[in-house]
Here is the input.
Amino acid sequence: MLSCGYVMYLLLISVSHFLYGFIKDIFTSTYEPDGEASTQGFSEVNGIKGYIPQAKIPGYPFPVLLCHTSGINKELIGWKSPRHSHKYYNVILDVPGLEESELTQFAITKQWAPSKTHAPSEPAANFCMT
Here is the structure.
């Protein structure tokens, strides 16, 4: 009977050790950063694009825009038509009778541009959020 209890004890230790390792792996990070953090802000990167909801349609030279873009710098869209403004490719403006105040029913894209003098606690980079 003593050997059966000893086997059960070893089995319990083994299972608990396995469960502890499994649970620990779920809740602990193994990520280690590679390189150094940059002091360059988002708006200082040449050619940077923001996340602007778009859909590519075969046969169209540019993607159609799927959000209200009046409050952002159009350079963040990532492309420019030589013939038409971005409004031409904005499908939410194709809804007949839609008033400006009703555009909040769609994704609203915003941009927070950095001010010339920002407090150290404020982020210095601008970004787009939908």
